[in-house]
Structures are given as C-alpha cells and as structure tokens.
Write a structure and sequence with these properties.
Pfam families: Hydrolase_4. Residues 23-239 form the Serine aminopeptidase S33 domain. The chain crosses the membrane at residues 148-167. The protein is an alpha/beta fold. Helices cover 36% and strands 20% of the residues. The chain contains nine helices and ten strands. The chain has an eight-stranded mixed β-sheet with strand order 1-2-4-3-5-6-9-10, sandwiched between helices. It has a two-stranded antiparallel ribbon with strand order 7-8. The two termini are 29 Å apart.
Length: 282
C-alpha cells in the first residue's frame, strides 16, 4: 500500500496503490461515488490485491485526501473530475502497466462520467455497481420523497452561506465543493440527467466508448431503480453490456443497499461469487 501524489492542471490528487506480491493479473482503478472517500473502498482494494490485482484508489479533487486548500477555495465541478482527475489517474495506471489489462471498477458516479476522460479508450473492461442516471423523479421512492428538500432548500441555502456544501453536518451526501454540488443539483433536476448538459463533443465521447461493461443492479438499492441503470447503459450505445441483479438472498445478510457491497462482510459472498468473476476478461 503506497500513497501517490498526482497533479492534473494544478489540481492535487491523492491516490493509493496496492501492489500484489506476484506480477499483477490486471491493473484496476476504483472510481468512487459522489462524496465518498477512497478509504471506503480500501478493504475491497486490499482483498483484490490479494487476488493478484494491482489496485489504484483515488479521491476526486476537493474530496477526502485530495484537498490542497480549504474546501471553500476549491474550484471544481464534476465534469472536471472526469476530464482532468479520472484522466490523470488512468494515465498513472497506464504508466504502471506492463502487458496486463486495465480494468475500471466504478461505484455510482464513477460509471456515469468515465467516458469524458480523453484516455477512457485505454480501459479494457468496466464494471459498475449501482451506477445509473439520477433524475430525481425517476429515482427510488425514498429519493422522490426527500430529494426536493436537498435540491430546493439545502443546496441553494447552505452552499452560499458555507462556501461549500456542508453535507456532513446536514447528513446529506457529504461535504462537496460548491460548484460540483450545484452542477449535480442541475443534473438531478433534468430529465436526462447529465446528458441534458453535455455539448456535442462530450456526447460523442460516450458514443466512442466501446469497452465491455458489466453492470450490477442491487435489488434493495435505496437510491436507484433498475431503470436508472438501463438508462445509463443506453448512453454507451457502442459498448457491449451485461446487467446483473444482486439480491440480499445471495448473501448471509439482510440487505445490501446502494453502498454496502463494498463492505468486507460481503467478501465471501458478493465479492467472491459475483464481483471477482465480473472482473475477468472473456
């Protein structure tokens, strides 16, 4: 486990690389959900390293350990997380490679924006977990019941006052740079989510992405429905995709939800039986 400091257009990025004892079977980048810190994924990263993978985790600029100044002074949005941060981390992963494949494991937001990175074509396979479009009226019943409070009160009121979105105090999403949160708010209030806000060149990047995708829908996901995931996959029209369902009955536990697959209690069920096979190239 080695800490790596990267820069991308004067943006500070903190990464952690997990190097297996033997030559790696693949290099794997784990891309986080919105507002989630890379440390959340590190139990899985360590386990995958034990299975022979070189694994790289990272925090988007302004999140977690990728803070080089107070968050109130962080000027970034989510598109920049893709075009600059993911692009830079993939470039680092490519530099680490020998001849092994490059894999991309994305949770939620990480699978929505990867095509915007210039070097996304270097990915040999993408696996997504609970990654779908986020228009609030098409989301789960729980989201529809509460998100109006987030979009129409919490974001517009708290963000100008704090200079960032104080999600940790509000117990919503997590602390976010102001521009990133405002952009996500616009996406979630738009019928086709982020795709209503992309220019023609950015839209073309999704059409150009042709790497195979294995997507996982979680049956008790409290945020997204299966339709959300299908909708996102439709925006990768030239990528062969497979959508699999994960249910609590596949585990010894009562529930999975939007986040819990990445917790170590699922090591002997979902990780071993479903995630690990999905990472293999056919």
């Amino acid at each position: 486990m080695q800490s790596i400091e990267l820069t991308a257009d004067q943006r500070y990025l903190h990464c952690v690389r997990f190097e297996p004892q033997q030559p790696p079977c693949a290099t794997l980048v784990i891309a986080a959900a919105l507002g989630v810190k890379q440390r959340f994924y590190q139990p899985l990263a360590k386990w995958l390293c034990e299975q022979g993978y070189r694994v790289i985790t990272f925090d988007y600029y302004g999140i977690g350990q990728s803070l080089d100044k107070p968050i109130q002074r962080i000027d970034t949005d989510i598109i920049q997380w893709a075009e600059q941060d993911i692009n830079r981390v993939l470039a680092y992963a490519i530099d680490c490679q020998d001849d092994e494949p490059l894999l991309y494991l994305a949770h939620s937001l990480g699978g929505q924006i990867v095509a915007l990175a210039d070097n996304a074509a270097a990915i040999d396979k993408m696996v997504t977990v609970a990654s779908g479009t986020g228009y609030w009226r098409n989301a789960s019943q729980q989201v529809r019941r509460t998100s109006w409070l987030l979009w129409y009160f919490a974001v517009p009121i708290s963000t100008p006052i704090a200079g960032y979105f104080p999600g940790k105090k509000l117990r919503m999403v997590g602390d976010m740079p102001a521009n990133a949160m405002r952009q996500w708010s616009r996406w979630c209030r738009s019928k086709d989510y982020l795709f209503d806000h992309l220019d023609a060149q950015q839209q073309q990047r999704y059409a150009a992405f042709d790497r195979p995708i294995t997507a996982f829908h979680i049956s008790d996901d409290e945020l997204l429905k299966r339709d959300n995931i299908e909708n996102l996959l439709a925006h990768y029209p030239n990528a062969p995709s497979t959508l699999n369902d994960l249910t609590p009955s596949m585990t010894p536990h009562e529930g999975i939800g939007h986040f819990n697959l990445f917790r170590s209690e699922f090591k002997h069920s979902l990780w071993q039986n479903h995630l690990l096979p999905a990472l293999r190239l056919d």
